[in-house]
Amino acid sequence: MFIPSHITGFFKITRHENLLKTGSTGAGITLNRGVSTKLVEGPGNVYFNDEKIDLCPSKDVIHYLGLKNELKHDITYISDFPLGCGMGTSGCCALGAAYELSSTYNFKNMQNDIDRSNLYNKNESNISELIKIAHKAEVRCNTGLGDVIAQHTKGFVIRKSPGFPIGVESVDIKNMDEYNVLVDIFGKKETDTVINDPSWIEKINNTSDELLGKLLKKPTLENFMELSYYFAKNTGLASEEIIEICDDLRFTAGASQAMLGNAIFCICKDEELNDAVSILSNPVVCKIYK
Ligand SMILES: Nc1ncnc2c1ncn2[C@@H]1O[C@H](COP(=O)(O)OP(=O)(O)OP(=O)(O)O)[C@@H](O)[C@H]1O
Ligand SMILES: CC(C)(CO)[C@@H](O)C(=O)[O-]
User: Fold this and answer.
1) Which of 37, 63, 137, 254 is deepest in the core (most CB within 10 A)?
2) CB of residue 84 inside a 6 A radius of ligand 2
3) How would residue 186 be classed by pLDDT, with cut points 50, 70 and 90?
4) pLDDT tens for residues 198-246?
5) Which residues' Cβ are closer than 6 Å to ligand 1?
6) What confidence category does residue 126 fall into, taking pLDDT thresholds of 50, 70 and 90?
C-alpha cells in the first residue's frame, strides 16, 4: 500500500497524557512520492529500502495490534525519501504497517482502548481505528504529531485541532495540477530532538500561535508558503543557509524548510520550474497528492 509523504510548513504542539489527544495543529501538503509497504513471510523484521532496521513506530503498531507474538511476516518498506528529513516518512511507515497488518491478520487480542472487532474490514470506523494506532505509535516514539492525520486526509491539509477527534480541512485548490513541489534534502534532523525540548516547544508555539488563523482566512498555497517561511525563520528552526536559498526562490509561490528536516521545499508553477531547479542542489520534482 502506498502512503504519501507529508511536508509540514508550520505547526503548534499540544501535549496531553492521552496519546490520542496529543498532536499538532498546522498545515502541510502530501506528495505523490512516499512509501510502499508490503508484508512478506518472515519472523517479524522491518526492512527499509532493503536495510533491516529497528523502527520504533512500526514496532509500536505491531504492539498496539497485539501481534507481537503471532506475527509471521516481515514488513518491507520501499521509500522515495530517507527517514528523518521532514517528509513524514515515519508516519508513512506507521500507517502503511497498520493498513497492511490489518488486512492480513484477524485481530482478537485488541488492547482495551481500541476496538479490534473486525478491524480487517475496511469500513469507516475500522479505518479510523487504524489511523489512531498509527498516530499513537508516532506520538509515543516522538517521530511525529500530525503527519498520520494529514497522510490519511491527503492534499493541502490544514489541521485545525490536535490528534483525535480529527479536525482537518483538505483545501480545494482549483488549479492544483499546475503546481510542482521541489524537495531538496540536505541532511537529517531527528524530530524527537525538537518536539521534546521545552525551549523549542515554547519558540514553536509562540511563533505559530496566529498562523493557523491567518491561513484559514486566506487558504492559498502562496499564503501557506509565506506563513511557513515566517515560521521557519522566526522559530530559528531553519539554518541561515536554508533561509538564503528560500530568499533566492522568492519568484516562485514560495519556499521554506520542510518540518522537521534539514530540507527545503518550494512550490512553483511550470514556467518557474527550470529557474527554481537551477537554484537547488539536488531537487526532486513532486506533485501535490490528493
Ligand atoms: N537506520 C535506522 N534504523 C532505525 N531507526 C532509524 C534509522 N534511521 C532513522 N531511524 C529512526 O527513524 C525515525 C525518523 O523519524 P523522524 O520523525 O525524525 O523522521 P520522518 O518521519 O522521516 O520526518 P519528519 O517527521 O521530520 O517529517 C527516528 O526515530 C529515527 O531514530
Ligand atoms: C512534528 C512534525 C513537524 C514532524 O514531522 C509533524 O508531525 C507535525 O506537523 O506535527
Assistant:
1) 137
2) no
3) very high
4) 999 999 999 999 999 999 999 999 999 999 999 999 999 999 999 999 9
5) 53-56, 83-91, 141, 143-144, 147, 190-191, 260-261
6) confident
Is the C-beta atom of 162 inside 6 A of ligand 2? no
In Å, how far are 77, 105, 113, 197 from 205, measured between CA atoms? 33, 40, 30, 12
Residue nearest to atom 24 of ligand 1 (CA): 86
Could you give the percent of the chain with pLDDT greater than 70?
Answer: 93
CA of 260 to the centre of ligand 2 (A): 6
Average per-residue pLDDT for the chain: 93
Decide whether any atom of ligand 2 lies within 6 Å of the 230 Cβ: no
Q: Are 142 and 278 in contact (CB under 8 A)?
A: no
Contact 4, 154 (CB under 8 A): yes
User: The whole model's pTM is what?
Assistant: 0.95
Burial grade of 28 (CB within 10 A; 0-12, 13-18, 19 or more): buried
Q: Give the ligand whose atoms come closest to the C-alpha of residue 31.
A: 1
CA 134 to chain centre: 11
144 Cα: distance to centroid of ligand 1 (angstroms)? 9
